[in-house]
Amino acid sequence: MTSIARVIITFLFMTSIATAPARSDNFIILQSTTSTENSGLFAHLLPLFTKKTGIEVRVVAVGTGQAIKNARNGDGDVLLVHDTASEEKFVAEGWGVQRHDLMYNDFVLVGPSDDPADIAGEKDVVAAFKKIAAMKTPFASRGDDSGTHKAELRLWKEAGIDVNAASGTWYREIGQGMGATLNTAIGMDAYVLTDRATWSAFENPRNHAVLVGGNEKLFNQYGVILVNPAKHPNVRAAEGQTFIDWLLSKEGQEAIASFQIDGEQQFFPNARQ
Amino acid sequence: MQYALIQRDRPDRPSVIPVAGKSLVYGRDKRTIIDNVDIEFGLSPGIVVVLGPNGAGKSVLFRLLAGLLTPDGGSVSWAGMPPNRARAHKIGFVFQRPVMLKRSVIANVEYVLAAAKVPRMDRPPIARDALEQARLSEIATSPASSLSGGEQQRLALVRALVTRPDIVLLDEPTSNLDPGSTAAIECVVRRARDAGTRFALVTQDIGQARRLATEVIFMHRGRLLERSSGESFFRAPRTLEATAYLEGKIVF
Amino acid sequence: MQDLSEAVTAALQLIGSLNPDLLEIVALSLQVSLTAVAIAGLIGLPLGAVVAVARFPGRTVVITLINALMGLPPVVVGLFVYMLLSNSGPFGVLQLLYTPTAMIIAQTILVTPIVAALARQTIEDLKVEYDEQLRVLGRSPLQQTATLLWEGRRSLLTALLAGFGRAIAEVGAVLIVGGNINHLTRTMTTAIVLETSKGDLSLALGLGFILLTLAFMANAIVMLGGGVRAYRKREAGF
């Protein structure tokens, strides 16, 4: 190799090392979901916490199922997801210290503007689900054990529809995060259940729009849990608890409420004071 | 110390035979290629030319003697001792097709000197001197791959000679070369011979054999049929097969 | 079509403004992949050369295995390394999960078979050509291997480039072991996944263009390296 090539490659290498962020030792790993990350909530919220405490929060944003599994493995210090049943099980089995209500938002049923199943404006989301099943119009499911997925399955159960039998026909299990599922749903003109915050922040809506929303059955509760240091000694319990305390405090709750997309609040703090 | 490619300080008779084979047997695929051969090279000065029809086993014999092939039977000795990697530079070898290293001409020579454990400081002057004697100095820093076929073979010859071997084995070194390059190679060989280097040469070129042979060995079907001085062989070969060969007839 | 033109615009804007976030993820991608290729080279080149030159029982099996490992799915490697480095795993105590080091480890595992397999083939082909000449000079198998590695340097460099191409373009491994953490383990490919999931397809494509340009530049540098040397020789009249 010529000296020129050597110089360029060394330069690139050195630059890359130089611009790599200095790793502070004061951090926690937060296992959370795509809705909180992709909506931009964390980008708004976390710098406020870091500024106050100097603790860096490293977010691993995956589906609820994966986040819980990672936390169970001890690969996170704090867990922030939105599936109350799984969260309570997590704590009951000893993997988490305590579960706290943190905030809520809601799900919305999104679909193509021409609305072939005619569900726009339905007051009861379960009725809308029944219509979709009856018309056999395409429906895209997360299919990934996430909070959104579990909420969706609860609604199908209440509607009395066996979606397993229909899987692969009009009911399509995408098996990915919210964003990828939305992309796919839009691409195949399907209905899809999503949390409002992710939808508001989503930049590729094409002809899709919110068709059903504001139903109390679409309530979406987020919880936060400290991973149990008794099970995993590596957990940064002190810093993790600092973070949780901040989130539940007046300051943290106000920070959550102040997050907006297009002038609209996305997450509603409801920690017990 | 002047380290010459063409050495003038060689003794007339080495005290031990540079390369010898005893009761050599070699076969492949149920065919016998070398059939119980006793041979020695390098005892007397000059060039021993090995002649014979295709399939006689000449190249295989050279490879056995150089340690490139292992005999099925019998043994090879170098200066009275078994072949040994550390003394490989004592047997020079030039192949029909030269294999050049992807570096400059002089680096090719220095590589061979390094393999012969010549001290690092001595390699450049020795290499330069050797190239000078072979008339390759002008292209010393060119990549070896850019040389013509004749120049590459001359370089291969330099590589074989530069480590002061007891004997140099040449396996059809000019078969692929034009007459001009052939003459250049023969010139270097002759000068080295005159200075005392021993050679053994396999060739299909009867004219070349006549020009260069001090002695001739005639091989046929894995056996040595004749060995005599060059002059007497070409005047009056003793065997039918050799006679037929010299007349250009196909010998089976 | 609209996405495509927006993508080009997005890419140019990012580059033109020397967007610091962009520089950060480009730097990390290069750092991870270049380091992985370097380590893979240190392991794979001698490994491939030794397998090419040595003869031992089971050699064919080893060669088949190395060749097959070229097709390791990145996401599988990611999962495997994750399980090793997880706090529930054997090497959890090293606390390497969700760091660039973990990403380097995963990519090294991906790239080493490629380098080893291509090196093996190159050296084996060279051995056929050089074998008799090197042996007649008394070179030991180790010395022959070293010489062949140098003689084959152009093809071996291409093997390294192939490894680099694989590393810089993969996302499955670095996503799982790195966690795509902002300002820490976000590379070009994981950023593309993120922007796609946010629906910002133009930006995702734009990043894709930049990634392609990077890969192209890396190859061009190496090609030029050989070309400049040849040009200089011609000028010197050889």
Describe this structure in words.
The complex is a heterotrimer of chains A (273), B (252) and C (238). Chain A has 273 residues and is of the alpha/beta class. Chain A has two domains: 23-105 and 220-269, D-Maltodextrin-Binding Protein, domain 2 (3-Layer(aba) Sandwich); 106-218, D-Maltodextrin-Binding Protein, domain 2, CATH 3.40.190.10. Chain A contains twelve helices and twelve strands. Chain A starts with a helix and ends with a strand. Chain B has helices at residues 58-66, 105-115, 123-133, 149-161, 179-194, 206-212, 230-235, 240-246; strands spanning 19-28, 31-41, 47-51, 73-78, 91-94, 167-171, 198-202, 215-220, 223-229. Chain B has a six-stranded mixed beta sheet, sandwiched between helices. Chain B has a three-stranded antiparallel beta sheet with strand order 2-1-4. In chain B, a hairpin with a 2-residue loop joins strand 1 (19-28) and strand 2. The longest helix of chain B has 16 residues, at 179-194. Chain B contains eight helices and nine strands. Chain C has a single domain (2-235), classed as MetI-like (MetI-like fold). In chain C, helix 5 runs antiparallel to helix 7. Chains in contact: A-C, B-C. Chain B binds chain C through residues 63, 66-68, 85-89, 91, 93, 95, 99, 101-102, 111-112, 115-116, 139, 141-143, 146, and chain C through 129-130, 132-133, 135-140, 143, 147, 150-151, 153, 233, 238.
Which SSEs are present, and which pair or pack?
The complex is a heterotrimer of chains A (273), B (252) and C (238).
Chain A: H1 3-19, E1 27-32, H2 34-38, H3 41-53, E2 56-61, H4 64-72, E3 78-81, H5 84-92, E4 96-112, H6 125-135, E5 139-141, H7 147-159, H8 163-166, E6 171-173, H9 178-187, E7 191-195, H10 196-201, E8 208-212, E9 219-227, H11 237-248, H12 250-257, E10 260-261, E11 264-265, E12 268-269
Parallel strand pairs in A: 1-2, 1-3, 5-6, 5-7
Antiparallel strand pairs in A: 3-9, 4-7, 4-8, 4-9, 4-12, 10-11
Chain B: E1 19-28, E2 31-41, E3 47-51, H1 58-66, E4 73-78, E5 91-94, H2 105-115, H3 123-133, H4 149-161, E6 167-171, H5 179-194, E7 198-202, H6 206-212, E8 215-220, E9 223-229, H7 230-235, H8 240-246
Chain C: H1 2-16, H2 20-53, H3 59-69, H4 74-85, H5 100-136, H6 141-151, H7 153-169, H8 172-178, H9 188-197, H10 201-235
Helix pairs in contact in C: 1-10, 2-5, 2-6, 2-7, 3-5, 4-5, 4-8, 5-6, 5-7, 5-8, 7-10, 9-10
